[in-house]
Structure formats: C-alpha cells, structure tokens
Amino acid sequence: MFLDTKKAQRYLDRALARGGDFAELFEEEKWTCSASMLNGKLEGANSGLRWGLSIRIFDGLRTVYGYTNEQEEEKILTVIDQLTAAIGRKRQAECPAIQEQIIPDQHAPEIPVQSVTLAQRRALMQRANDALLNYDPVIKKAIVNLADEDQTVIIASSDGRLVRDNRQRTRLRMQAVAMDGDRMQNSAKAPGAHAGYEFYDQIDVEAMARDAARTAKVMLNADECPSGEMTVVIDNGFGGVIFHEACGHSLEATSVAYGNSVFCGKLGQKVASELVNAVDDGTIPHAWGSNNIDDEGQATRRNLLIENGVLKGYLIDPLNARRMGMEATGSARRQDYTFEPTSRMTNTFLLNGTSTFEEIIADTPLGLYAKRLGGGSVNPVTGDFNFAVLEAYMIRDGKLAEPVRGATLIGNGAEILFRIDKIADNGSREQGMCGSKSGSIPTDVGQPTIRVTHMTVGGKGGKLK
C-alpha cells in the first residue's frame, strides 16, 4: 500500500484537470487463502496477494473509470490522463488539501487470518469432515472448503478525504452428500464472519456439520413435494434470501435510479403487511456483510427500508444520489478494484415479530414448511422469483408431518410482502455471496420465521391433498 495524502493530492489534482467535478481513488491490497478437503484428504491449498488502484471521475451524471496494477507513478498518471481525455472540458473543480481521517475499527480480529498455519487450517477442516462422515453411514462424501481474506483499502476523494480500512474475513463450507443406490441428496452449512479465527471458537462447527448431514439424510428418503397454491411457512436465517433477492435488489439505487424497480416512487407508501419491518445494517460488529466504511469511503449505516409495512428508504451510492436528488446511504460496494462501485446490500433482514415458531405451526392447518432455501432466479425489474427448497416438510393439522423434496417456491416479491400474516420472534442471519453489477460481495441474509398466506409451490408429487 502506498497512497498517502501527498500522492493522493497529485493524482486527484491531475484527475480534475480536464473537466471532472469529482474524482476518487481506490487502492486495494488483498491476500487470499483457500483450502479444500474431500473425505478427510486435503485436496489443495492456495494463497496469493493482489494489488491494484482504480480511478473514477464524475462529470455530472457521467463517469469515466479505469484501473491499473502498475505501481510506477508515471504509469498511473498515464491512466489518469486517458480518463480525463474522455471528458475533455475545461477544469470545473479544484481539489482541496487532502486530510486523512481515522476510522474506528469495529471488526478488528483477535486472531488475524494470516497468522494461522496450514496445520491449524487442516485441523479445523478435519473437525468438520469427521462430524459429517460420522453422522450416519448414509453420508458417503464430505466436502469441506475454507476461505480466508485479508483486504486493506485506501480511498481518497476530491472532497479532501483519505481513509483506510482493513477487512479480514473467514468462511467454512461443510457439505454432506447422502447416497443410497442411485439416489443422492446433499446439504451444506457455510458460516462466515468479518473476523479472524476467533470466530471458530464462538460457533459449534461440529453441530453445524451434523445439521448439514441430517438434512441430506432426511431429504434422501423424502417423497416428492406436492404442487399447488398453499400456505407456506419459511424458516428463519437463510429464508431471508427471498427478501434479499426478490425485494432487496429492487431497493438498490442501481435499479431505482433508472426506473427499473417496482418500488420506484413509493417512499412513504404501504408496500407490505404492517407486520413487516426490514433493515440493511452494515454496522453490525463482525457480521459477514459489514464494513467500517463502504467502498467510496463513507461510513456504513443501519438503513431502515420498511417500517410497519411502509417504504422508508432505498440503498443509495453517491453517483445515484446525484441522479435521484437524495442522500447517499453508505451503500457503495464492489468486489475489488477492477469493478466500479454501485449501491449494494450489506446485512439485510426482516426484524422480529411477536409470534413464536410453535404458534405459527400450530395455527397452520395445511401447508408447507420450508426449513431451508437454496438458489433461485429473480427478475429484478418485476420481482418475479422462483427458489428451490433444500429441506421441507408438510404441515398437517397444525403439526410438522412428512418431509418432502423437490419443492420450488414461485411468486412475486412485492406481492409476497403483503401476504405475510405472521412473523416469529426468532430472527437469525446466515451468510452468502451476492452477485450483481459491481461483482460478487459478502452479504448476510436473515429473518425470523414468517408465514405467507398463499404461494405457488412447484413439485412432482401431484396436487396437494
């Protein structure tokens, strides 16, 4: 890392030389390490270090963007000159004296990821592997992947600020494959945090591995799910992926600013059941999707999105803030220096309600309990979605009944929000990677258990009886 206030001053002055009204620099150094294990055998381990610098210049609502991994000053200035030539106007703005701002670190690791040896990594993975394989003889394959990242960024901008941030993350993915003849089912758990290896002393790795194995075993012997419109109870934790995908992306300025969202122009209007309260909070200490600052150097925030069913806010980056005439919300994110930042989610979840899980099940005569969701597809413009259900059970006479497999949830995000009639008090979050315009980034999804009065369920088990 080499940017300081003097270098940043020179580069930003040069960036504004031919007409831009705002410029920013994003320097990144990222160390990554990954390892994989199959049935107790270490299959591979790799680590690497990457550096790069990006430059972005605003000219009203127009931007030019470039990056380089060359550290020589003359080569960096050449990239800047190429960008300013694309603007080609007289100087509009001056860059004030750059001052470094110290940002408090809410996510400092106790055991830095780069201090952990390969032997320690292997021992952690072996614990997960053994818990998977020892759960039941039907578990024939255990796949464990471990990924660590140590990223340091320096962001300087022509409003006179320079900020630094260190981000260390670790994630362990434990996958169980159950097999019986030609039948096969798999399930996985993948906890992660914006933290060091102290994280693995704070969670029960073996219990999570056994839960993945349990799901694979149960689903191996489950009958096909029936199809039709029915009441659906969606469990807490990763169940929040429906809100993230079908609603959260439609609340990002990336969609809203261009009129490509069902929530355009609806601030202050009712967009959900009055039970629904939703936030995006990038400030939660050590949460997977949290940062001290966003990728344009603004402090992250807890942004209220929906309150008692009323739309209260969007997620807005600085460029789209200009487009929308609104304030930026600390939501600018990018995968790395090669991606131009835009508005993205951090940790997005529904808040607790007042019901209990047991009350919701007992009050449901017939329906589907979607305990764990998987991948799916969403149209961000319309909010139409379909999601695979990795673990599901029928609800009959207010009780959990037989497990069913192959269920798919089909619906529209904006419509589903109005159909939520019960929310439990058991909110939790789980980790994922979110792909969008500015690359793949870590995000938390979450919710309490919710009940949707009616939803289309796809399955091969015939009509619901």
Automatic annotation (TrEMBL):
Keywords of the record: Hydrolase, Metalloprotease, Protease
Native source species: Holdemania filiformis
Domain of life per record: Bacteria
Protein name: TldD/PmbA family protein
Domain Metalloprotease TldD/E central: 112-220
Domain Metalloprotease TldD/E C-terminal: 227-459
This protein's record includes keyword Protein transport: no
Signal peptide span: none
GO biological process: proteolysis
Stretches assigned to the Metalloprotease TldD/E N-terminal domain: 23-85
Family: Belongs to the peptidase U62 family.
InterPro entries named in the record: Metalloprtase-TldD/E_C (IPR045569), Metalloprtase-TldD/E_cen_dom (IPR045570), Metalloprtase-TldD/E_N (IPR002510), Peptidase_U62_metallo (IPR051463), TldD (IPR025502), TldD/PmbA_N (IPR035068), TldD/PmbA_sf (IPR036059)
Cellular component GO terms, alphabetical: cytosol
GO MF terms held by the record: metallopeptidase activity
Taxonomic lineage from the root: Bacteria, Bacillati, Bacillota, Erysipelotrichia, Erysipelotrichales
